[in-house]
């Protein structure tokens, strides 16, 4: 680990242009010509590393950890990390968007469980040893995710999401059984969490209407500045970005279940113009709505 460390960089999410956007990825990382397997960086995705061979050191938010074959590492959204491996080191990397831990209609109780993984430095345990994982379903779940993404059989998206949810349920219960704090709300008031449910309800029913952060702040009886900070801390993105996410999720359904034009779908889901809808869709899904529709239809 004597290599010179550079300033941590932000790693944007990159998806192949030939496939629809999926909120998860999986690959095998192996030792190459240099011990530095992964330079210091951060991203908004949650990441799971599962070592299958060798041993590596990971610098995670300023602290060093080691992990070897059979160990699992949990990297939160926005955690700064770098990895150095020994020769012949290999690990499976599963990276996914925190949104997949939520159901289609968000509920506050879900946020309580997801927050430990989206607020940097919140999780009480980063490395899970082989001893802890032996006899559990986690190794098979992680390998199963890789197999599902390689084979892409019918329904693989549901299989991957289910496996990721089972992994995180195991992690949460493991922490609880060890007496570790899983309450990410040390700085989050219970009353504010309940207020946020009103925002989710409003979005579910009225995402197609003109909605602003100022309106939501009034709905929650919060100041605009407090609401904006609070919402971003909880959801990992601004209210406007999340509103666009909800609208694009609804637009996806219309793209695949109707013959409506892109312009009609843009208007129906609340976007001010087709051009803005296309730009936001491309930003989130890494392809245009038209390409997305054609791609998914060709695959199914």
Describe the structure.
The chain is globular, with a radius of gyration of 20 Å. The protein folds into 2 domains: 9-178, Sandwich (Jelly Rolls), CATH 2.60.120; 188-299, Homeodomain-like (Arc Repressor Mutant, subunit A). The protein has a 5-stranded mixed β-sheet, with no helix packed on it. A 5-stranded antiparallel β-sheet has the order 2-9-4-7-10. The relative contact order is 0.11. It has helices at 108-118, 130-133, 138-151, 156-178, 190-206, 213-219, 224-235, 239-257, 262-268, 274-285, 289-299, and strands at 9-10, 24-30, 36-42, 46-53, 55-60, 63-68, 72-75, 81-85, 90-96, 127-128. α6 crosses α7 (224-235) and α9 packs across α10. With 300 residues, the protein is an alpha+beta fold.
List keywords for this structure.
single chain; 300 residues; alpha+beta; Jelly Rolls; Arc Repressor Mutant, subunit A; five-stranded antiparallel beta sheet; globular; disordered N terminus
State the assembly state of the protein chains. single chain
- CATH-level-2 architecture of the largest domain: Sandwich
CATH class of the largest domain: Mainly Beta
User: What is the average of the pLDDT values?
Assistant: 83
Structural class estimated from helices and strands: alpha+beta
Classify the fold: give the CATH topology of the largest domain.
Jelly Rolls
Number of β-strand runs: 10
What percent of residues are in strands? 15-25%
What is the element string, with H for helices and E for strands? EEEEEEEEEHEHHHHHHHHHH
Distance between the termini: 47 Å
């Amino acid at each position: 680990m004597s290599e010179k460390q550079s300033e941590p960089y932000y790693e944007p999410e990159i998806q192949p242009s030939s496939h629809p956007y999926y909120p998860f990825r999986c690959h095998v990382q192996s030792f190459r010509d240099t011990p530095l397997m992964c330079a210091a960086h951060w991203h908004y995705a949650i990441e799971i590393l599962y070592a299958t061979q060798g041993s590596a050191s990971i610098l995670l938010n300023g602290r060093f950890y080691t992990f070897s074959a059979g160990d699992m590492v949990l990297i939160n959204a926005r955690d700064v990390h770098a990895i150095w491996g020994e020769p012949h080191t290999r690990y499976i990397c599963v990276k996914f968007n925190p949104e997949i831990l939520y159901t289609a209609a968000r509920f506050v109780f879900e946020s309580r469980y997801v927050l430990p993984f989206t607020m940097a430095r919140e999780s009480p345990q980063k490395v899970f040893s082989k001893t802890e994982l032996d006899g559990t379903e986690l190794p098979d779940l992680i390998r199963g995710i890789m197999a599902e993404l390689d084979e892409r059989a019918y329904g693989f998206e549901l299989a991957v999401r289910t496996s990721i949810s089972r992994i995180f349920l195991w992690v949460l219960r493991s922490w609880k059984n060890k007496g570790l704090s899983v309450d990410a709300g040390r700085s989050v008031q219970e009353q504010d969490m309940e207020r946020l449910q009103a925002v989710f309800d409003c979005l579910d029913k009225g995402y197609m209407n003109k909605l602003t952060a100022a309106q939501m702040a009034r709905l929650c009886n919060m100041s605009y500045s407090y609401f904006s900070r609070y919402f971003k801390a909880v959801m990992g993105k601004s209210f406007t970005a999340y509103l666009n996410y909800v609208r694009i999720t609804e637009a996806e359904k219309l793209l695949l279940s109707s013959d409506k034009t892109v312009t009609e779908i843009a208007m129906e889901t609340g976007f001010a113009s087709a051009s803005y809808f296309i730009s936001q869709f491309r930003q989130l899904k890494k392809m245009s709505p038209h390409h997305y529709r054609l791609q998914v239809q060709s695959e199914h």
